[in-house]
Structure of Aspartyl/asparaginy/proline hydroxylase domain-containing protein:
Amino acid sequence: MARSVLETAHKQWPSDVTCRGYLGLTLKLQGHHNLAVPHLLASVKSDQPETINSRFYFHLGDALQRLNRNDEAMEIYEKGVIKGIFRSKYQRSLYNVDRLKAKPWWTLEESTYSSFFRKLESNWRTIKSEGLGAYRERSGYLDEAESLRDIGDWKQYELFARGKKYQQNCKKTPVTCQLIEEFGAARDCRRGQVKFSVMTGGTHVWPHCGPTNCRLRAHLGLVVPAGTTIRVAQQTRTWEEGKVIIFDDSFEHEVWHNGTEQRLILIVDVWHPELTAKERASLTAI
């Protein structure tokens, strides 16, 4: 409906770059990247005040990346930085608290949550067993739902999301959920999730940014075959079974699984450590 209305409006007012921006945005969200790019480019390049729209810049760059036009995408992101839309060409979240420390990779100590993450590490075999047990039942693992996957198979099993517990899934993973419930920065993180993530060989996840800089994302390696890597900004790393890695997922990140066996990790989002208690209580869920 929205597409047809915007296409009609564009035919009637072809020079209206705001209309073209929203038409391009609609096409992009429907997965029509080739069709979306010319409209979004025309809108963004016009530099009219009404086209300095964070969603236009965000989705134009994303569409260009998915068309393997990466240099053009970076030009759009750099322009977005100049316009005050993005914090950097790699950190492109749209729901931010501007004063928070920003860096792609964090150590456990820098997160200030090292005791919690060490506890996860010490229980990793039990967490792995619960994640694999739930996977064998299949019912709770769902396909990734944000159209971030290029090729391959990537499923997720949610335990907590937006500060709410998935009771049915937690019944099958009681130790994992109890560990999360004991730690408020993860349990109550309304701008994050806790979930198992399983990925098969031959999977590639497009470069993308999380929606907010108000969280950090931890990955606990559970089953880590050869050929699995993750890039955050300009640095690429891999996982290690029984170990936690932490990054700020508001920075661009990309995942490859070039191996043959399944990769399983536990994803745990926690509040950014510099948020105040008042901010954690008042920030809206994402």
